[in-house]
Amino acid sequence: VHNNDTDPNRDTNRFQLFESIYKNLEMGYSPENLEYTSFCLQYFLASIKYAAQYEESNRIKHDNIIQDIIMFMKDNLESNISLDEISAHFNYSKSHMISLFKQKTSYPPMVYYNQLRMQRACSYLQFTLLKIKEIAFKLNFYDPFHFSKAFTKEMKMSPQDYRKKYQK
Questions:
Q1: CB burial class (10 A; 0-12, 13-18, 19+) of residue 151?
Q2: 13 CB neighbour count, 10 Å cutoff
Q3: What are phi and psi of 119, to 5 degrees?
Q4: Staple 157 to which of 35, 43, 161, 165, CB 3.0 to 4.6 Å?
Q5: Higher per-residue pLDDT: 59 or 15
Q6: How far apart are CA 102 and CA 66, in angstroms?
């Protein structure tokens, strides 16, 4: 079998599957265990023989997980989540999650998360009467100055200027 897969975690999934087969056989040779391990072995062998299909199904799974991570980020813009919390929530190692996320979005997860926070800040500035310090605290910046500095760096204008320009 010739495999052109460049995903460094490709074999990790297969090793985990093989480990699952082995551990189940260690628990005994009941008909249920033998049937389960037989199906797992068929999947394991199919992942080698039909590598292109296996890789495509994993790619789809990874695309979906990235969408799930982005939704999780959006749902937690006012919670100030960390990379550790995100990776733990999705049961991925930080390095694997960062790699998948960058591959799909071209951004590291926390850069993407901070961009989402800035988008939310823009929305608050444009569509609410919240004070800038209220927006800063709502989005979990530790002070209004830090928020203004981050906002200005990202948006190339201060929060006050943004509000004047875009508020309806």
A1: buried
A2: 15
A3: -60, -40
A4: 161
A5: 15
A6: 10
